[in-house]
Every structure is written in structure tokens, then in C-alpha cells.
Amino acid sequence: MRPGFAIRFALREMRGGLAGFRVFLGCLILGAAAIAAVGTVRESIQAGLSAEGARLLGGDAEVELTYRAPNAEERAYLEGISDRVSMITDFRSMAVAGDARALTQVKAVDDLYPLVGSVRLDPPMDLSTALDGENGLPGAVLDPTLMAQLDVTTGDTFRLGTQEFRVMAALTHEPDSVTSGFALGPRTLLREADLKEAGLLAPGTLYTTRTRLDLPPGTDLDARKQALATQFPDRGLTWRDARNGAQGVAEFVDRLGAFLVLVGLSGLAVGGVGIATAIRAYLAGKVHVIATLRTLGAGRWTIFATYFVQIGLLTLLGLALGVTLGAGLPVLLAPVISARLPVPAEFGLYPAPMIEAAIYGALAALIFTLWPLSKAADVRAASLFRGADDAGRGLPAWHFLVAIALLLAALVGVATWFSGNTWLTLWTAGGIAGALLLLGLSAAGIRWLASRGRRVARGRPALGWALAAIGGPGTSAASVVLSLGLGLSVLAAVGQIDGNLRGAIERDLPDRAPAFFFVDIQKDQMPDFRDRMNSDDHVSRIDSAPMLRGIITRINGEPAREVAGDHWVLNGDRGISYAGPLPERTDLRAGTWWGADYTGPPQLSFAAEEAAEMGLSLGDEITVNILGRDITATITSFREVDFSTAGMGFIMIMDEATLASAPHSFIATVYADEQAETQILTDISKAMPNVTAIRVRDAIERVAGILGGLAAATAWGASATLLTGFLVLIGAAAADQRARIFEAAVLRTLGASRARILASLALRAALLGAAAGSVALLAGILGGWAVSRFVMETGFEVMWPSALTVVGAGIGVTLLAGLAFAWAPLAVRPARVLRGRE
Amino acid sequence: MSSPLLSLDHASLSLRSNAGRVDILHGITLDVHEGETVGLTGPSGSGKSSLLMLMGGLERATGGTVRALGHDLGKMNEDALAKLRRDNVGVVFQSFHLIPTLTALENVATPLELAGHDDAFDRAADELRAVGVGHRADHYPSQLSGGEQQRVALARAAAPRPRMVLADEPTGNLDGPTGEVIVDLLFGLRERYGSTLVLVTHDTELAARCDRVIRLIDGRLDVDPTG
Questions:
Q1: CB-CB: which of B85, B100, B101 is closest to A749?
Q2: Does A735 have pLDDT greater than 80?
């Protein structure tokens, strides 16, 4: 090999310009830009969350408790380590104004709130002034959504429990809202002291307190966390600090970002198809140059190195442009993106996502160019004397195949490392490879069908030419199906999964789910509650159970997390019930139920599926911290718990004697006709103002909204893939234009009208688009069915509106790309074209 | 003699190029009668092929008139010209110009399909057999030799039984014996269908087989064409 010659010759060849590389560069730029952009937004949000951890948390650190506030000893300890201490109480309640009722998430604060950041109100005023109220009523500030639901404005009054409040302002910004987690109702902010007369925080009412700490500068947060755990072991205190103030959000953003980067990889795979096509076309045009070089004595490796250097330089250019574009766009659009993000973000150029995009782009470019490059080296000197060269056929030499396999393995390895999720990466890689294989096979099938269909099309010349172009030599069927198919497949799958999940949630679930959850019903209110529901003809079923909440701290004496890892049951506190005799509709799967009059050592019945996931067996001892007290119970039975119906389901039920004396309230589910829901809500909230009603239909809408957002994010990712596919399509159409011009010239010589030729061009684009759309639809339906059936565990039916949109998009996009290049074949004079080829 | 099938009256052709205007044909006046065979000869660049293109309406005269089959080609739009060729004119090129995505049979059937013949494929198969490549009907052009491709092109030109066949160096890319076969087939068209033949060639022997030879030099006729 002569590297010096290869570099010099590569540079000389590039003096001709980059016209032949537009599609190559476009695919590379788009693929790298999409990944860099997703990564940059993700890094910006992580930086924002990290920088504003204290504000998001509402203090340097926070101690959370369920059902109670810190006792005097705990409070004294926290005050001892802090400069300032502020406590908020968070719970759900019903806000009532006239006849309007709405579920609200109440935050009761003290005078120091917020320790960090500031509250913004409309009209602008001081929070303390707002909460002072006026005309003898305490004040409250409400989320504008809640004000609309209650139909109140500033100066109006509303009721929480038995306490009237005056609406002093709309709450337009709550500094610590991000860390409040999933809320079913919009926010009401009021002063805790004003709740005393409301009758809401009765014993057993579900509420959370968060004690925020303003720590002295330089405090060792880890040491403080350890010291608290040592000082108050097993009290149910949960510590969070500013380092991970919005840990849940950060993890969510991280996972979503990783997922979207993987979707971006599918764009790069489609771009790879375009890259390979462009390089193959470029090298096909260089056969005579290569053959001449071979005649003059250039070896295979010199030829390979010459074009490798050219393509390597262009790859560097494409990556530089793509990464700059991808990282720069979010920075340029920072004000627009920030305005739409519910979390803070610090936009800037972060090296990590730029490096990530460059590595992905470089690997993809190498993988997709090595094959055609290796074939270029196979061109023989004899090609000069023969019309065509057969070097393009067959497999590359074995060392190239090994190199391509190693690069593919490196790409999957790098993706696994970057995403931090091996299974997700392997599934995605397998999905992309499987989809490309399926699309490749489909393209072959489409060619076969088109060539078979030509006999049927006899007598219809436009259709015949279209089928001949699809099924005959030099067909673009493979590049169209591959380039469009992957993006459309992802879009189709997202449409099917989203539609079925929404269907399951919005259409099927309300038929099986209760109309309401009523929580915080006091024990002495239960008989009245039951009477009211039983006397209502619209109510078909009532389930009720006592409810407490507790955190599993130990399993067989060992810390729970060491035994069961990070299973979701161990994340925070869970609802716990108790029962004497076996409750109705209980499906006992293993073990025995304690008797109705059991008074022995604590016993526990655990949900069977979750127990299996956590590795629990009958006889295991579970320690649960309830209201600051550890209770250790033995598992004596496993029950089937079906959460899919949104009915009542407890992971843990203890024997009655163990928990009946602890302060607690009741929860009830009521199954009723939709038209009776308003009446039931009005009746209960009037008679039992402390009871909170959660309308299941509203909750379902919230969940469906969140799922819709995730589906939209994925669809955007898929759209980037589709855009790359469109670019590849444009490239293929442009490369094909000479052939189309020639074909049109011959047809016009033979007497074809321009309308007929145009019809044929449109037909072949539409047929290929419809074929690509149909294949994608099939792949999408298969993918959607698999995810719905095995991951979401919902039923599945084909979502035809979404399905037809995908096929329509396929036709539309290919028509657009095909017809954009139809003008030249129609406009050119046949004589000029044909004589040019003599 | 009958009225001319083809009549050019002071026809000229100029093309614009990057280097400026290029005058290719100057005031060509000639008649070609039905059933006649005419050889067009002359040195390279003399305008032979351009004159042939004017006759077939594949190129438009920039001056004078070109009348073919009773029509003034200058007054017809592109689609009308295409229809005129479809029904009356067969063209054979030096480089064959078969459509690469169509088989031999489909290439030959194309003008018949365009004309709406129900038996397009049967007639195409007959034409292929007549030129000796019936066994290659399902092959694509890339799978045929040069001689076979030109036979297919000839079959395609002959299939609509045209009143006029225009052939541009039809043997230029073929070896001697193969070229002779093609020429025999081409002249056979007059016997089979009574077609008028205008043939561009460098080959003086081939030209001599024509009823009349017209020589062009620098875009002008070298002899009195009206003979």
C-alpha cells in the first residue's frame, strides 16, 4: 500500500466538489444532530435540576413522615442541626364552593415557607399577606385550574372540610412543585394554623409532613443523613437533600433521554442505508478511475485507502456539522424549550452528548461504508474494456466482514454503556436489526409481487411501467422500503400501543373500575356512609376497608432492600389493611387465613405476585413501620391481587387484633352509574366534609394525559427517523433521475403522452409508498400487539385511524419525493437525451 | 410519383449552448415519398442525426417547415407529436435505447399498448420471432448481446407496422455479420409493411442499397435532393 499516494489522490479527487455526497452528508448530519440534540436537552435538564436542587426540594434537606409530624424530640434534634426549620403538611381534600366540588392537593405551610425560592401570585402580593386572609376569614391561594373548576375568583370563598377560606390570589409559581410527585388534584396553599378548625387532619387521615432544613454552610450531608438514621432508627423518617432534590424527576429524564437516544439510533440506521446507497452510487461512477489506477499499478489496499480517506474526511465534516447543529439548536431555542419544560434547565454546550453523538455517527458511517468500499477495491483493470463490472456483487472479503461485525458489536456495546440499560439497548438493537431484516425481505417480496403483477397490468401501460420499475432491474424498492419503513414502523407501533393503552384506560377500565375512591372516612362515619350508598339505586357495589400506611423496613430481620432489591413495593409507604374473617372476593393462593377471632402474634397476608417477585415465602417475617412503630408479622398466606381493575387492592393485610387499635381511617370504593356521580359527590361532601372523594374518571384522564406525553415524545423521535428516511428517499430519487429521464425520452419516442408518463411516475411512487406503509403497518401492529399483550398486559385491537395514517404517510412521502423529480423527465426533449447517450 | 410522405422546406436547426448559438442545419429542403428508402450520409458532425430527429418530430426546427404524413410538425404540441409517432413512425437508434426495466417482449409491446391494441403481446411475440429473438422474450436488455438488443429495437420499431422507419446508424455498434442481418431485417420492413425508410449511415455500401442517397456537409445538402 502507498499511503502517501492514497492521501494525495484522495485530496485531488475531492477538488471536484461535494455534489455527489449531499445525501451522505445529509444523513450523517441529521443522524448525529438528532442524538446530540436529545443528549444536550437531557444534560441541560440534569444540570438545571442539580443546580436548583435546594429550591426544588424547598431546603438544603428534608425529612418526610407519613401520618404524623416529627415529635418534640425529633423536632428538637432537627432544629439543633439547622439554622432554620420549616414544616409543610401535604394531603388531599375536597374543595367546595357553592355547588362546585373539586379534588385538591393541599399544602399547609408555616410562616417560614418557602425556605428557598419564592412563591409567585396573581395579583402579585406577599404570600404571608395572602394567607392572612381578610374580613375574618383565613386566606388561601389556589392553582388557576382549581379556581376554574370551582368557578371562583379572587375575593370569593370556598370550603375545605368545615373551614371557610377566602381566595386571595392565584398561585402561578410554586418553587417546590416538581418534587411533590404525582398529584391527582391541583394545588391549594394555606397556613397550617388555619386548618385546626377544618376537621380534616383527624387521626388516621392520610397526610405527609415534610420538614425542610436550612443547614449551616459546609454541612456534610452524608454525615447528617447517617446521624439521623442512627439517632432515630426505624421511625419511618425519609431523608432527602439538595444533591438529589428531584431524584425521581432526574431519573425519569435520564431514562426518557436514554430511550429517545435509542430511538435516534434507528434514525442513524436509516441514515446508514442512505449512506451505503450514496457511497455505492459514488463508487459506481468511479469504476473507470479505479480501473485506470489498477491498470497503472495501484494495489487493492491503495484503492481502498484512497476512497477510505475521502469518505473519512467527509465523515469528519458531517459529524462536525451534525454535532454542532444538534448541540447548538437546543441552546439557540433555549427560551422556547424552557417555557415548555415543567423543570428547570441550564442550556449550554455539554461535551458528553456531543462526544456520544460523534461516536455513534462515526461507528454508523464506518459500518455502512465498509461494505461498498471493500467492493471498490475489487474493481479490476479489465473493467476499462468491458461495459460493466461485476465487482459489486457477492460478499466482501472475510476480513471486511469481521471488521463490520466487530464495529456492530462496538456500537451495541457503546449504546449499552451510554444508556446504562443493557436490556433496553439489546431489545432496541434487536428490534432495529429485526425490522431491517423484515423490511429487506419485504422489499424482495414486493419486487416479486410487482414482477408477477406485470402480466395482469397488460393493456394498462402506465401501471405496467410502474410495476416494471418496481420489479425490474435497478429497482429502488429496497431503498424506499428500508428508508421509509423503519420510521413508519416505529410510528405505527407507537400509534397502536398508545391507542390500545388509552382504550384500556379510557374505554375498558371505567366499565370495570369503581366510580369513586372515598378516603379518610372515620370509623364512626362508616355506618352512615354505607346506609347512604346502599339506599342509592344507582350504586351497584361498595367495597370498604380500614387503611393505614406503612413502610416495609425489614425482611426476616435483614434490611428490606438487601433482601428484595429495589422492588417497587419497597419504594415509600404502602397502604395496609386489616381484617378478621376472610374478606369477600378474596382469592387465597397459598397458606391459611387467620380465624375471625384470632388474637395471637401478628400475621400477614401478602399479594402473591409481588411476593414471588420479592422472593418471599410463607413463614417469612416482615417488619412494617406504621405510624413510627415497627410491627413484625409472619406471612401466613398469599392472595391474588388484581390491580388492573383499579379496584381496592392491598399488598398487605394484617390480622385485626394487631392493627385495630392504631389510629386509622377507612377507604371505600363505590361502583355507580356515570350519571349519578355528581349526586353522590354532592351528598357525601355535604354530609362528611372531611371525606375526600377521588373520581376515578378524573384520575384516569390524568394518567392518560401523562401516557399521551410519553407517546408524543416517542413519536417525535420516530419523526426524526422518518425525516432521515425522506432524505434518503430524495437521494434515491435524485440518483434515479437520469434513468427516469432516459426512460421518459424513449417512451415519448414510442408515442407516450406526458400525462401517461406522469401517471406512471406517480403510480410507482404511490405503489412503493403504500407497500412501505403496509409493511411498516404490519411490523407496527406486530410490535404493538407484543407490547400490549406481554408488557402492558392489556387486550389488543388494531387502531385503524392510526394505521391508515401510517399508510397514507408512506404514500404521501414517496409521492412527494418521486414527483419532485418528475418535472425533468417530462420537460426534456427526447432527441437531446437519446443522442447524448449515443 | 405520389405526394411526399415527408417534406422539409428550408428547415434549419440552431441550438443554444454555453459557448453560444450553434447552427446545425441550414435551409434543408427535401421530399421523401411513400415506400422510398433514403440513405443520409456525410462526415461526423454534418447534421445527419439532427435531420433524422427533425423528421421524427423528436427535435423542433428553428426555421422553415417540416411536414410529415400531412402534418406540419412545427404546429403540433409534444403530445400530438408523440401520438403521430405512435401510430406512424418507428425509430431505431445506434445504441438501441431499450428500456432497461422492461423485458424484450414488454419493450416491443409498449408502442402497441400505447395504441390500445388488445393483442399487443401476441403481436410483440410475433415481431420478436420475425427478427429471430423469440426465445429471448423474457430477458432484460442487460441480459442480451448488442446484436440481440438491436433486433429487439427493430422489432419494437416494426411492431406498429409504421408508415415510416427512421434508423440512426443502426449498425454502428455491431460487428459486420451482425450488422448485415440487422440491415436485411430493416430493408425487409418495406417488403413486409411497405414502410418508408430513412437511414443515417457512414457506410457507403449500405447507403448504396437505398433508392436514393442524400449527403450532408456542414448542415447543408450536398446534392439536389429533388433528384
A1: B85
A2: no
A508 Cα to chain B: minimum distance (Å): 53
CA A470 – CA A463 distance, rounded (Å)? 11
Which residues, listed in sequence order, are joined to residue B120 by a DSSP beta bridge? none
**Structure confidence at residue A387 as a pLDDT band (50, 70, 90):** very low
DSSP string, A569-608: GGSS-EEEEEESSPPTT-EEEEE-PPPTT--SS-EEEEEH
* Chain A residues within an 8 Å CB radius of B59: 829, 831-832
Question: What is the residue type of A646?
Answer: A
pLDDT in tens, A537-562: 888 888 889 988 888 888 998 888 88
- CA A27 remoteness from chain centre: 25
A351-376 and A247-284 helices cross at what angle (nearest 10)?
20
For residues A237 and A78, the answer to whether their CB atoms sit within 8 Å is no
Chain A residue whose CA is closest to B158: A750
Cβ within 8 Å of residue B143, ≥6 positions away: B136
A135-189 pLDDT, tens digit each: 889 999 999 888 988 899 999 999 888 889 999 999 988 888 766 655 667 899 9
Distance CA(A795)–CA(A799), nearest Å, equals: 12
Tell whether the model's pLDDT for residue B204 goes beyond 60.
yes
Q: What are phi and psi of B119, to 5 degrees?
A: -100, 30
Task: Give chain A's contact residues with B (Cβ, < 8 Å).
Answer: 388, 454, 458-461, 464-465, 468-469, 472-475, 739, 742-743, 746-756, 829-832, 834-835, 837-838
Which of A306, A372, A349, A305 is closest to A24 using CA atoms? A372
For residues A610 and A652, the answer to whether their CB atoms sit within 8 Å is: no
**Domain assignments of chain B as residue spans, ordered by start:** 4-221
Comparing CB atoms, the residue among B49, B82, B120 nearest residue A459 is: B120
What confidence score (pLDDT) does residue B37 get?
Answer: 93
**Cβ contacts of residue B80 below 8 Å, gap of 6+?**
none
Instruction: Give backbone dihedrals phi and psi of A578, rounded to 5 degrees, phi first.
Output: -135, 160
In order of A34, A281, A315, B16, the CA distances from A268 in angstroms are: 9, 19, 13, 45
The percent of residues above 90 in pLDDT, for chain A, comes to 19
Tell whether omega for the bond before A123 is within 30 degrees of 0, i.e. cis.
Answer: yes
Question: ipTM higher than 0.85?
Answer: no
How far is the C-alpha of A480 from the C-alpha of A488, rounded, in Å? Answer: 12
CA–CA distance, A141 with A170 (Å, rounded to integer): 6
The whole model's pTM is what? 0.68
Give the Cα separation of A409 and A356 in Å (integer). 16
Chain B interface disruption, residue of A455, A750, A826, most B CBs within 10 A: A750
Rounded mean pLDDT of A303-314?
A: 89
Q: How far is A816 from chain B (nearest CA, A)?
A: 22
% helix / strand / coil in chain A, to the nearest 5? Answer: 60, 15, 25
Which residues in chain B have Cβ-Cβ distances shorter than 8 Å to A751?
82-87, 111, 114-115
- Contacting residues of A for B165, CB less than 8 Å apart: none
**Chain B contact set for A830 (CB, 8 A):** 58
| DSSP, res A787 | I
Q: What dihedral do alpha carbons B95, B96, B99, B105 form, nearest 10°?
A: -160
Which residue of chain B is at minimal alpha-carbon distance from A741? B99
For residue A666, the tally of other CB atoms under 10 A from its CB is 20
CA–CA gap between residue A607 and residue A611 (Å, rounded): 6
Instruction: State the DSSP H helix or E strand holding residue A142, giving kind and residue range, or none if neither.
Output: strand A139-142
Topology, domain B4-221: Rossmann fold (3.40.50)
Give the Å distances, CA to CA, from B177 to B173, B174, B203, B209.
12, 8, 14, 16
Type of residue at A117: G
Helix, strand or coil for residue A633?
strand
